[in-house]
Amino acid sequence: MTFEVRDLSKRFGTYAALDSVSLRIARGELVALLGPSGCGKTTLLRILAGLEMADAGTVHFEGADVTHTPAAARGVGLVFQHYALFEHMTVFENVAFGLRVRRQPKSKIVPRVKELLARVRLEGYADRAPSQLSGGQRQRVALARALASEPRVLLLDEPFGALDARVRQELRVWLRHIHDETHVTTVLVTHDREDAFDLADRVAIMNGGRLEQVGPPAEVFRRPATEWVMRFLGDVNEVPVHGAPTPAFGYARPHELDLSRLPSEPPSFGARVRRVQSAGALVRVELELDGNRSLVAEVDEGRFETLALRRGDSVFVSPRHVRVFDAQA
Amino acid sequence: MVSDFVSVPTKAQVVRPRVMARVALTIVALGFLGVVVVVPVLAVFAKALEDGVFAYLRAVIEADALSAMRLTLWIALLVVPANTALGLAAGWAIGKFEFRGKTLLTSLIEIPFAVSPVISGMLFVLAVGPRSVVGERLLGSGIRIIFAWPGMALATAFVTFGYVARQVITAMETTGRDKEEAALVLGANGWQTFWRVSLPSIRWGLLYGVILCNARAMGEFGGVSVVSGHVRGLTNTLPLYVETLYDDYRFSASFAVASLLVFLAVVTLVAKVLVERKIKVSS
Amino acid sequence: MASSGRAIPGFRLTLGFTMFYLSALVLIPLALLVAKSQSKGFGVFWGAVTTPRALASLRFTLFVSLVAASINVVFGSVLAWVLARVSFPGRRFVDALVDLPLALPTAVAGIALTAIYADGGWIGSRLAPLGIHIAFAWPGVVIALVFVGLPFLVRTVQPVIEELDPAHEEAATTLGASPIQTFAFVVFPALLPALRAGFAAAFARALGEYGSVVFIAGNMPMKTEISALLIMTKLDQFDYVGAASLGVVMLATSLLVLLAVHASRTAGERRRAGI
Question: Is the entire prediction scored with pTM above 0.80?
Answer without folding.
Answer: yes
